[in-house]
Amino acid sequence: MFGAIIGGMADTDRIPLDRTDEAILQVLQDDGRISTADLARRVSLSPSATADRVRRLVDAGVITGYTATVSATALGYSIMAFVRLAYPSGNYKPLHDLLEVTPEVVEAHHVTGEDCFILKVLARSMSDLERLTGRLATLGAITTNVVYSSPLTRRTLGPA
Hints:
Order of helices and strands: EHHHEEHEEHE
Protein name: AsnC family transcriptional regulator [Kineococcus radiotolerans = ATCC BAA-149]
Number of domains: 2
CATH superfamily of the largest domain: Lrp/AsnC effector binding domain/regulation of amino acid metabolism (RAM) domain
Shape: elongated
CATH topology of the largest domain: Alpha-Beta Plaits
Strand content: 15-25%
Distance between the termini: 27 Å
GO molecular function: sequence-specific DNA binding
Number of helices: 5
Largest sheet: 4 strands, antiparallel
Structural class: alpha+beta
Keywords: DNA-binding, Transcription, Transcription regulation
Helix content: 25-40%
Domain HTH asnC-type: 17-78
Pfam families: AsnC_trans_reg, HTH_24
């Protein structure tokens, strides 16, 4: 079984892909549980050649991991928010320490602009979100945006 995550490479690290590699990546992003035999049929290769291609894509760093996508709502997290943090110092250790012990922060991005970080946060309730943002606010000024809905939650990638 496969489940693909693509990313993490700089432009200078770009790996040349042919149409078969691109087809493999598309199928794996659409159906990460596909068997090697079914993947091989979908891309018109033998199972052994397909397994070799997938292994090469992993070794080259094109496929960077395997995962399952889960429903935050089904796990009790009914609120999603983005918290922008204006971090006042260049010492990021307190932020990294807080991220380490705050599993409700599911993404953290160091960004340009007035804010230094954008954090994706999941919460069980508004009072839970208030608790989480209170902890984050100890590090610097925050702005919180609660998500109403998400018309696009994931998009598959092809070569740039």
